[in-house]
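A reminder from the course coordinator: this example appears on the midterm review sheet, so study it carefully.

Given structure:
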């Protein structure tokens, strides 16, 4: 009887639940290990991990709430979320709290959150609804791409002003959803060409406007700060407001594409502390790792418990541990694809694929940054990095995926034509 009640509580696809469980276990262990300096500075050994476990507890509660909502009802909140996302994104540009030179945070009733986290799910929800509503026997209607680009411009545009990497990753997910949704190939090719021209223009402007010498990344364990050597630039016009982070973008690009070999004794740890200590953490793992809790670079690597937690995972658990984390995200993506393939209706299929691509794409990019395959950005590792509202929102995304697995109408099984699946319509 007890097993049956637990099964009724954790509804939905069991594989997704197992992936979530293992990611949480890894998160608790590694965040606890990587937060040693926070414990030391705060004078409370247990405080950081108690906070993190509490966030995961509320995240699990959020999953249980969302998965019990039939996925067909998600369509009803799309207009509300679009309005809320647009208001908060504009609000954060005007009165947001600055972190690393970017205004990304808002405070409401004492709770800090990033509007971009809400906007990401809103974009996925809106694109899934557009693609499903405009499907034809030959794929998506030609007008679908116009509506998708409109919603992308409205919600992704404001994100790009303060968090270019998040905006780029989100639009990449939108592109993949359009590919899955069979948007006409000619339209996709034109869009790719336009994006290529736009990216080239932005890169040229960043290289022309930005001054990498103004950006100096200091080695701080609990907070990464950026300070200017000279007087800070005053934003006098719309051009300056759009490219006010050009210095940071240019510095990161130059550091990433700089192929000049530097001797260890000549390496500037004050300038490239994150990359240096991440590389040291990975190299010192000796393939097999030092064991959980035995990291040394966690005391030197800025954002070890967040943006660079994957480097700490490699240092402590070696290549095997890193491969396990990667494998869990890949399993999540393929499981979402299998569930989407069983959906009879288009909306839940596009929704679960969009959310899975959102989480997995961010995870892969975070891993690439940690191992030096991508420029440094502020992307945490979903469901593993230490976080607050962002972790809870990612849990809500997992809850929506579980809702699709539980409530979406399934295609009749080919090997059992006499039995129709008894599930709710979506």
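Designed residues:
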């Amino acid at each position: 009887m007890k097993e049956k009640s637990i099964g009724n509580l954790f509804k939905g696809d069991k594989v997704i639940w197992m992936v979530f469980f293992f990611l949480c276990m890894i998160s608790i262990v590694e965040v606890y290990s990587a937060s040693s300096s926070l414990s030391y500075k705060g004078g409370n050994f247990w405080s950081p991990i108690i906070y993190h476990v509490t966030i995961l507890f509320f995240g699990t509660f959020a999953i249980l709430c969302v998965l019990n909502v039939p996925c067909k009802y998600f369509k009803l909140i799309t207009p509300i979320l679009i309005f809320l996302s647009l208001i908060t994104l504009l609000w954060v540009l005007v009165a947001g709290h600055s972190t690393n030179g970017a205004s990304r945070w808002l405070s409401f009733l004492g709770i800090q959150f990033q509007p971009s986290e809400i906007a990401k799910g809103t974009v996925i929800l809106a694109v899934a609804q557009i693609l499903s509503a405009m499907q034809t026997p030959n794929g998506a209607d030609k007008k679908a791409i116009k509506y998708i680009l409109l919603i992308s411009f409205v919600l992704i545009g404001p994100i790009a002003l303060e968090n270019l990497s998040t905006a780029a990753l989100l639009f990449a997910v939108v592109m993949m959803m359009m590919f899955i949704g069979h948007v006409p190939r000619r339209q996709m090719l034109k869009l790719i060409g336009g994006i290529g021209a736009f990216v080239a223009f932005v890169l040229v402007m960043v290289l022309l406007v930005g001054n990498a010498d103004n950006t100096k990344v200091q080695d701080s364990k609990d907070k990464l700060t950026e300070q200017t050597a000279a007087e800070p630039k005053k934003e006098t016009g719309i051009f300056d407001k759009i490219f006010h982070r050009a210095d940071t973008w240019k510095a990161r690009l130059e550091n990433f594409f700089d192929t000049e070999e530097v001797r260890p004794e000549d390496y500037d740890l004050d300038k490239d502390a994150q990359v240096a200590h991440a590389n040291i953490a990975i190299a010192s793992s000796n393939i097999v790792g030092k064991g959980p809790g035995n990291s040394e670079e966690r005391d030197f690597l800025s954002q070890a418990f967040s943006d660079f937690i994957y480097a700490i995972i490699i240092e402590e658990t070696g290549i095997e541990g890193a491969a396990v984390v990667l494998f869990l995200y890949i399993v999540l993506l393929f499981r979402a694809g299998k569930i989407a393939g069983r959906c009879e209706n288009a909306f839940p299929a596009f929704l679960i694929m969009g959310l899975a691509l959102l989480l997995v794409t961010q995870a892969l990019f975070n891993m690439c940054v940690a191992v030096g395959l991508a420029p440094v950005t502020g992307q945490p590792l979903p469901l593993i990095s230490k976080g607050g509202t962002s972790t809870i929102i990612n849990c809500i995304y997992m809850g929506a995926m579980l809702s699709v697995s539980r409530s979406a109408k399934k295609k009749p099984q080919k090997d059992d034509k006499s039995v129709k699946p008894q599930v709710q319509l979506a």
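Residues 216-239, 418-426 have pLDDT under 50 and may be disordered. The two ends are 30 Å apart (CA to CA).
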